[in-house]
Amino acid sequence: QYPTNPDIVVIGAGAAGVGAGRALAKAGIPFLIIEAKDRIGGRAFSEATSLGHLWDHGCHWFHSADKNVLRQLAEEIGHKFLKKPRDGVMKAFMNGEWKAEQQHEDYVWGILGKVAATGRAGIDVPAASLLDPQHPWYPMARHWLSLMYSAEPEEISTRDAGSYEDTGLNLAVEDGYGALIARLAEGLPIATTVAARKVTARGEGVAIETDQGTITAKAAIVAVPARMLETGKLVLADMPADIAQALQDVPMGYYEKVAIAFDGKVFEGFDMPYVEIFDPVAPLTHPLNFELHPFGRPIAITHIGGQFAREMEREGEAGMVDFALAALVRAFGSDLRKRVKKATTTHWSSDIFINGAYSCARPGRGLSRLFFANPIAERIFLAGEHVHPSFHATAHGAFETGLFAAAKAAAAAAKSAAGGKQAASA
């Protein structure tokens, strides 16, 4: 059922690989997608088994939705998502009481805006240099920066942050972002549980060594998380020095979620879909933000970013759940514990085929990700969120790079075929 002699091999069936596959299928080019995991989607993963309710382990919002190609495709196939943002000021529980003031939200978004504006002005410094450690809400600013960039403020390049095209319209995907990628992959030739180990330019084409043998093709699209290349789990034999350096300059950060299901809508009547719990307001307190009853489901989901996410994931699922539930209990009372039905967490940091969240350039290296768009040996092309110059760290950015890489790989395959015919006729 798979092409035995594909023109192009796509490595990875996440958003980038699926984007590449759809473009190649539309062009009528023989191709094969291989995926190391036993499922499609990569960091886009929706499931309902763990909690009894659908939730996204990875990406969940159509970011910059008015320019988001995946939002457009979701509309075409009837995949449900919010049509407008959830309005209202985020409530915050601080020092034992709820606050619905605009002030703390303005502070957070002001910091995020300042970081991006500094980068757009061509200044490349650590985001941490723009923070005031003496401000009482300093931990909240650090928390939100770690969520947005999956890295600590000291590790965030303002230039890279400023290159992201943020239209401000972010819409949650009701039917699941991971489920959308899986739907878009339907009908594509995808071989799962096939792990690529090494990609080498050979003759007029490429050789892809896998744990199940070697596949040859005229060109390859490498659509795997950047850390797989950075750590050598997938070796690109012909990788140029500028791309190798870019992998060091633009590493993946860390991001995890804790999801808790209750025996009913325990937050009903609390008219905020998102809350922040920062209690007590103190330098050593780690703030947490929660989604409450998303789409009416009796669950709460908290998001953790940066090194704290990595450390919490290392402590194990029980510790992560206890930490999140303790924050909810401080804000909503101890009776909440009796209502817990199920709880689970993500494990992106320790997933052997991902090992992280999304890419963020180090300070002073804000332009390094541009090297990822360069071809390798004129027939190997990178795709993924780390490759996109302005929609990095997003699923739609990854998908777009798959489209771009497919066009380049198709041209390379055609050139290889022409070269082979000339050699045969000589």
Based on the model shown, name its key terms.
FAD/NAD(P)-binding domain, 11 helices, 20 strands, Polyamine Oxidase, Chain A, domain 2, seven-stranded mixed β-sheet, 426 residues, alpha/beta, five-stranded parallel β-sheet, 2 domains
Structural account:
- The chain is of the alpha/beta class and 426 residues long.
- It has two domains: 181 residues, FAD/NAD(P)-binding domain; 174 residues, Polyamine Oxidase, Chain A, domain 2 (Alpha-Beta Complex), CATH 3.90.660.
- It has eleven helices and 20 strands.
- Helix 1 links the parallel strand 1 and strand 2.
- The longest helix has 31 residues.
Topology:
Blueprint: E1 8-11, H1 15-27, E2 31-34, E3 46-47, E4 55-56, E5 61-62, H2 69-77, E6 91-94, E7 97-99, H3 102-120, H4 138-149, H5 158-163, E8 171-172, H6 177-184, E9 190-191, E10 196-202, E11 205-210, E12 213-217, E13 219-222, H7 226-230, E14 235-236, H8 241-249, E15 255-262, E16 274-278, E17 288-292, E18 299-305, H9 306-315, H10 317-332, E19 340-345, E20 380-382, H11 395-425
Parallel strand pairs: 1-2, 1-13, 2-9, 6-16, 10-14, 13-20
Antiparallel strand pairs: 3-4, 5-8, 6-7, 10-11, 11-12, 15-18, 15-19, 16-17, 17-18
Helix pairs in contact: 1-11, 3-4
